[in-house]
Design brief:
Length: 361
Amino acid sequence: MILNPFIKPRFNGTQMVMIDVIIALLPLVFVGWLAYGGVLIQLIGIAVLSALLADFLFSSLLLKRFTSVLDGSAIVTALLLVFTVSPITPWYVVAFGAFSAILFGKVLWGGLGKNRFNPALVGREFMSVFFASIMTSPNIWKFKDLIQTPNSNFFKGLEDGFLSDYFSSVLFQTKGAMGEYSIVCIALGGLYLLLRNRISWHIPFSLLATFTLLNWLVGDIGLSYSMGGILLGTIFMATDMPSSPTTKNGKIYYGLMIGVATFAFLKGGIRYEYMSYSILLMNGFSDQVSLVFKPNAWGVVGDWKGRLEAVFMLSLKIGCAILAVLSLYYYDLIHFLVFIYIVYVVLKFNYSFSNKVNNVV
């Protein structure tokens, strides 16, 4: 039976999509609780409450939408935000990050589905800029005293000690941000989303393949990164539907360039924000990627020469943007991007709002 366009399928609405993402994140909640107990639950509760409050207030006041808080996106944003921080991040910093993620990452863009950048990463960068002394302090990653379940060797039967330690760390380890403790659980969440058709394989595959290939060709000597953090960003943030391309080829290219940017940022000395910067940078090029890789109309012969030229020029732009971010980071000017972003989003919202008022149908 073919449904008409105005009939919405029962199990593919926004709420069901968000519920599936929350289900996919539950293994990470369990692992975080196993490691830190009530600390994780407390931060999740604070982030969720702050995000829901911001969503209700600003969606009601600015967008006149009083039920948007029920779509579940605020909860997903809060969870993802918490998974990018240390367990000893102060509660008020987490609350500020969740509040900023909803206001500047969702509402001021016009609401759910209209955001250009991933809201959770927007909130994460706001925390890094407005609480720089806390978020950039080496002490924020010293939390061994909080660990309730220490790392264990789950594969003692293996003769090879290296393999035993490696497999154990893939299953459970307590280093880094709170969403990085189990590569297996992140992968399980990604597999669930793939099976539920909430994400496609194109972005994760091209991103991870590109990053792995560059590591193999150039070498990862001296690079300090978390595979759990890269996998978390790949599955749950790079695949964010509103801020990623819509076409299959566009998604492959998009993931490829995130992999290139991630490797370049690591090589350039960016230690903690490499994945966040990479995804946010490519969020900004998402519409251009979709345009360059849009399918040909039926019956129209494709202009491959023109397509290759467009891809080359787009890659050149992205390369320049990567170098610009590295330069700003080197000279400690990266925070100005957040200030520019705030001004841009506010002006864009005011312009859109004025147009709606002045062009009433």
